[in-house]
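User: Sequence in, structure out. Go.
Assistant: Echoing your sequence, followed by the structure tokens.
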Amino acid sequence: MKFSSRINSFRSRPELFVPKNNMDTCDLIDRMGSVEGLTHIELNYPEHFIGQDKARIKASIAQNGLEVGGIALRYNKDFINGEFTNPDAGLRKRAIDITLEAAEICKFLGGNTVTLWFGYDGYDYAFQQDYFRAYEWLVDALRTVTQAHPDMQFSFEYKPYEPRTFSFIGDVSATLMLIEDVGSANLGITLDFCHMIMKKENPAFSLFQSARKNRLVGFHLNDGYGHFDDGLMLGSVHLMQTLEYIYYAKRVNFNGLIYFDTFPSREDPVAECSQNIRMYKALSGFIDRLSIAEIDQLIKSQDALKVQGMLMKMIAQ
């Protein structure tokens, strides 16, 4: 299993860590390197590279026994009116340029995936967005960046809202439609558990839909209560849905990066990340002991009481 985590989570509880350089990117990488079982790291561009030496970052990753899974885009508040759908043509071009720069950084660090999350491509009011125009801008921009780097995997991470009231692409079906319209073989989908819960999707079904279209690239795992992007520990709220999600990940033979997108603010981030890894392994191990075939028969019965019995068996172990 390949496990990664959110680098900014390791800024929390600074009193538990002695930084060398005022908690810069390399300090955060050093802290992540102390997590048992963590194998990969994903950095944000340009956030984690501002005023930083990319060669030093690359060396720090290697020194901590980690590998780069990919780069995630984080556009600043200059793009508050949109990234790829911004009404300002100059800002749309700048967003595209930043994305292309991120792909180059990803290659330099040895990563293979650029994750696209557009927090500002959306709207807050009726009649605020020209849907026809904005959608064409989005499709054209995605074609530009994906075709410029055909050897790089790009992945779209959707979110229904926050910070915008409505995201332009906010659910699994809209994302799959967008990917089809873009038409690039190297564009896929990253599923964020909290985002799916916010949209009232069943995460395992969204996984099935993505895998059926051969577009499943990665996971962002966490948990929450469904109103906001809570970023709680894996399995802490939706234990049964998390178990079903991992079952379907096994069923579709997912072998990509398992990324924990959690927000520990009061917890020791090293211990919190370790707990996420242990929880994933525990749920995965339970499925293996029960066997895919046995669970398959349980599903075919469509018997909710038997499903609850399975949960009780897991608790008893």
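User: And one key feature?
Assistant: The longest strand covers residues 67-73.
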